[in-house]
Amino acid sequence: MPELPEVAAIADYVDGRAAGLPIRRVDIASLSVLKTADPPYSALTGRIVSSSERIGKYLIIHTVPGPDGPADEPTIDLIVHLSRAGWLRWSEDLSPKPLRPGGKSPIAIRVHCGLPGEGFDVTEAGTQKRLAVWIVRDPSEVERIATLGPDVLAVSRDEFAAILRGSSARIKNLLTDQRTIAGVGNAYSDEILHTAKLSPFATSKNLDDAQIDSLYETTRAVLTDATSRLEGQEVARLKSEKRTGLRVHARTGLPCPVCGDTIREVSFSDRSFQYCPTCQTDGKVLADRRMSRLLK
Fold first, then answer.
1. pLDDT (tens digit, 9 = 90+) per residue, 141-199?
2. Which of 22, 53, 207, 229 holds its CA 20 to 30 A away from the CA of 77?
3. In CATH, what number is assigned to the domain containing residue 68?
4. What range defines the domain where residue 139 resides?
5. Per-residue pLDDT tens for 227-261?
6. How far is residue 166 from each of residues 29, 86, 200, 204, 269, measured CA to CA in Å?
7. Which residues contact 36 (CB under 8 A, 6 or more apart)?
8. Is the separation of the CB atoms in 91 and 114 below 8 Å?
9. Buried b / exposed e across 192-205, counting CB within 10 Å, b at 16+?
10. How many domains is the chain built from?
């Protein structure tokens, strides 16, 4: 799943490729991904891509009226949530043929912008279709954005501590709850907790001051380091670059790069997370989905 560093890198990439370009046409191949009807997606035609940014794990592409377009819609935003298997691909050889709705292609939406053949596809692999697209006049019109918690890189240490102490959730769950704090997903929460030497099952409100300090600094370091590593990369390389930077996530059965212990996994019905027993749980192996306590 693309998280804060990847979405920031994609936004930067789109900004460098598309800012200032006119949108010639938008094709929707999967109507189920489109979550809004007003403005219609056709309203983007003729507008200019002005900039792109990240809000939480959402990609925001801002547009302004083109020279021949109506001025009564000063801003229309194309918002994309890539979910678990979504991605964006830039091309200079897009087919001029409209996409066929309901086909087997992974392409959900295609935006033709710039010269003929230029533009980008938003794709989604797999059978579970969770990618979502909104076309709105303001990002706050999207309920899932309006209810986001503060951005994880924007909170102070004291604000971070207040969030932790105000919750009885496990720290893994709190870090990935976008309504509590926005930007972190499954992969980077594994990396953060491993670096901070904290159990995913630790209760957030029970962390002491030293643990809170460590978690705050580690969260910022892991995310900013990943963002810096991905900055300027071609979009096609971002996934592989992300994987090379991970120390525990998706490395079940491999040795921990810090202590050499075997990376373990806790599995649930639709996801899993990884951790190092020696680094994070005093050598104890965490329960799987059938249990909720440490195995003796």
1. 999 999 999 999 999 999 999 999 999 999 999 999 999 999 999 999 999 999 999 99
2. 229
3. 3.20.190.10
4. 4-146
5. 999 988 888 888 888 988 899 999 999 999 999 99
6. 44, 33, 17, 8, 28
7. 134, 135, 136, 141
8. no
9. bbbbbbbbbbbebe
10. 2
